[in-house]
Design goal:
Layout: E1 16-23, E2 28-33, H1 35-38, H2 41-46, E3 49-56, E4 64-69, E5 78-81, E6 84-90, H3 99-113, E7 129-133, H4 140-152, H5 160-170, H6 184-201
Helix pairs in contact: 3-4, 3-6, 4-5, 4-6
Protein name: Tyrosine specific protein phosphatases domain-containing protein
InterPro entries: Prot-tyrosine_phosphatase-like (IPR029021), Tyr_Pase_dom (IPR000387)
Domain Tyrosine specific protein phosphatases: 126-171
Length: 208
Amino acid sequence: MKDDDRSAPVYDRPAISPIAEGIGPHGATIYIGGMEGARDMALLRTHDIRVLVNCAVNLDFDLVDRVLMDPGDGKVAAGYGALRYYKIGMIDGDGNPSAMMLAGLLILQGALRQTMPDRPTYPFKDGGNVLVNCRAGRSRSVALVSLLLHVEAPERFPTLDDAVAHVREARQLRPDEWFETPKPMLLEAAREAAAWAQAMAAGSPRSE
């Protein structure tokens, strides 16, 4: 498949998959999906998904549904999105600084804990479920969600490998694709990020 292909490969799994319930202070359900699931607003609303975390640097969405500034003169529309949207631009392979996976974890943890101001300029509610997506929901999102589950729910996922095994099953990833779901360098980045998170929780951040 060429790098400039516009469509992610098609796999026999749902557009979005529920991965784990009861995560974070609002008890969110964490989902994983690819680009087809992430752009299906009706599907997201059905599952009370109010937070979208996009792991892919080579994929974006037009989520503005309340336009404050119209497009024109070389400018794009600006306004409020259909949901709370966070972007972590990771490559599905080599080329990511190791800190990017940790940044993804911190963004996810922050999104789970944000308290929205009661002001018209913040038309969002606290809580809701979370969809983590990449192009196909097989690698970048699998690594990041596995990291989140291990750090946020260590009693259920005491090791990162436990979390990865659970995510592979919940996302319906076949054993013959496990070698790249997630890609080895992303799994290694998740291991490093888990060590960083543990060191920060202990009050002694690591330095590279």
